[in-house]
Amino acid sequence: MSDAKAQARGPQDRPMSPHLQVWRWHVTMLTSILHRGTGMALYVGLLVVAGWVVALAAGADAFNAYRALLASPLGLLVLFGLTVAFLYHLANGVRHLVWDSGKGFEPKTADMTGWAAIVFGVVAAVLIWIIAFLGMGAGQ
Amino acid sequence: MTSYRTPLGRAKNTGSAKHGVSHFIAQRVSAIALAPLGLWALYSSLGLSRAGFDGAQAWLHAPVNAVLSILLAVAAAIHMRIGMMEVVEDYIHKPSTKAVLLILNLFVCVLACVAAVFCILKIALIGAAV
């Protein structure tokens, strides 16, 4: 492109990124969106964890009430979701750190590590919750 | 080299505030800290899920757990703040709404961090209220 033409460019002519819906779905796009989504979920999750410490410092009544809330069916569902979100965000975060070193950008590699992060997040979370429930049974 | 700057932008000499790199680095350094701290917290939560009030208090009373918990609170607050800031900057375009959300994000992260650190120290040093 000639420099004169570049000079004439206005805001209207600037190249725009195509909107989300024109892309065919692929796993690297999914992992990118999931990274933001799980990040937002973990933002709320960390406030829940901070609430746990505050309840613990506030005394036995506050702590037991907070604990009952977390142990309710909805509470357990949220905690399981946060476990998946954390493990996925961790695995995908490692992908980002590897990318920062300039490696892992080949499409096949990126696709494979993307699927690995998703599978790791779900499988590891299920295993940890099985261990948690088995441990709870043994402890009683 | 093709320039994508607008004529007005070129005339006003506006552009990057040249502060972005510090956020980029802080997000990655906090991520590196959070990987082991988060796994430690997840591991600890398995035992804590069975602990009642006394057990949880005794756990946080141990110096190693108190120190790692404080590190987690600080690293998490930094990481959350930058992550949410990036999302707000990307998707909220109205300047007034954006400013309000960015300030709210900062205050929520600082408040959660300070409250958590204070409560951890209280339990670790003098014990919780009974």
Distance separating the two termini of chain B? 69 Å
Report low-confidence residues of chain A grouped into runs of 5 or more.
none
- Counting helices, strands and paired strands, the structural category of chain A is mainly alpha
Largest interface: A-B, 41 and 41 residues
Order of helices and strands of chain A: HHHHH
Q: What is the count of helical runs of chain B? A: 5
Q: Number of DSSP strands of chain B?
A: 0
Q: What is the number of beta strands of chain A?
A: 0
How large a portion of the residues of chain A is in β-strands, by DSSP E?
Answer: under 5%
How far apart are the first and last residues' alpha carbons of chain A, in Å?
74 Å
Judging by the overall fold, what is the CATH architecture of chain A?
Up-down Bundle
Q: Looking at CATH, which topology of chain B would you report?
A: 3 helical TM bundles of succinate and fumarate reductases
- CATH homologous superfamily annotation of chain A: Fumarate reductase/succinate dehydrogenase, transmembrane subunit
**Oligomer description:** heterodimer
Show unreliable segments of chain B: none
Provide the CATH top-level class of chain B.
Mainly Alpha
Largest sheet of chain B: none
Radius of gyration of chain B: 20 Å
